[in-house]
Amino acid sequence: MKPVFRKSRKSAGVWCLVIVLGIFTYLGLVMGPSNMLNTIMRTAHDLLLNTCFYLMAICVLMGALSQILVEFGVVSLLEKILRPLMKPLFNLPGVASLGAVMTFLSDNPSIITLARDRRFASYFRKYQLISLTNFGTAFGMGLIVIVFMVGQGFYWEPFVGLFGSIVGAVISTRLMQRAVLKEYPQFKEEWAAEMPAADDEKDDENKPSLFVRVINALLDGGKSGVDVGLAIIPGVLIISTLVMLITFGPSGSGAYTGGAYEGTALLPWIADKLDFIFDWMFGFKDPHLVAFPITALGAVGAALSIIPNFISQGWIDSNAIAVCTAIGMCWSGYFSTHTAMLDSIGYRKLTSKAIIAHTIGGLCAGMVAHFVMLFIGIF
Length: 379
Prior knowledge:
The chain is globular and about 65 Å long. Mean pLDDT is 86; it is low at 199-203. It is built from 18 helices and no strands. 72% of the residues lie in helices and 0% in strands. The protein is mainly alpha-helical.
């Protein structure tokens, strides 16, 4: 008798081949094989030069700023200011605010770096520590998202989106906590870790001068920004190129030329059939806009790369910027990070619950941003 896993792997291989061939066959039949390949390469090349490096520049500058804020105690100050909000809003201890600030200034994995620290984890019950995956993801790359939107000429709309993402974070975190307690009721009383023994006070006599601290913080922060910038390149080139192939249509002449940003317009066609849903939920006036939340599922950097093209086509407005900011911040590519994040703290089997909770949270974030924009429009 042959092992079952061999049959399973063969079946998966067949399905993978069918799906891949199906996608390229569809694109090739609509666009033509030569045009399809040229469009893929030229779109990826343009995204690399004009979007990825732009995003990397933002990451480097924001990384330097973030490290300055950490070095000189601004992050600690923000953590103390936000601490009283943690329990009533997120049902988390006050120290969780440090995780929100760190992920807002950098990216999702920052929360897991903190969660694996015994001193930090000792403040949490087990169900609370697990919910940090959802809590931290909702603020990932927040500063970069806001700065990017401001750089596109929208100055107050991203802050409406920030409010929406906070609401989405509350919903996602609390739903995750309920899901964990339903499966593991004992986690309500069990502590995530024991408080380690206090460390000896460090001697500050050899602390470097102010000038050296500033230079070190700027360079170290800039280096971390380069790492983040490099990390988002695969998502932008792969996910955005694929999404654009099914979002945009042929060239202005109506024919396929193999140029960058041509496609089959499949996604807008589907979205147009469900227009009443997206119009009510998010206030999207153009079906192409649905590409942003779909892309944000995998990578928020990739989703941001779509915005300049939407602006140039005249498809985006103030409401869409607020909604996209809210969804982009709240989701932050959680499809590609939740499994690894939960695995790193030993609870990978709860991934499906975390994804469901965060999907709901992100949708609510976009809806809140839309209704706030409607409220502002009334006055």
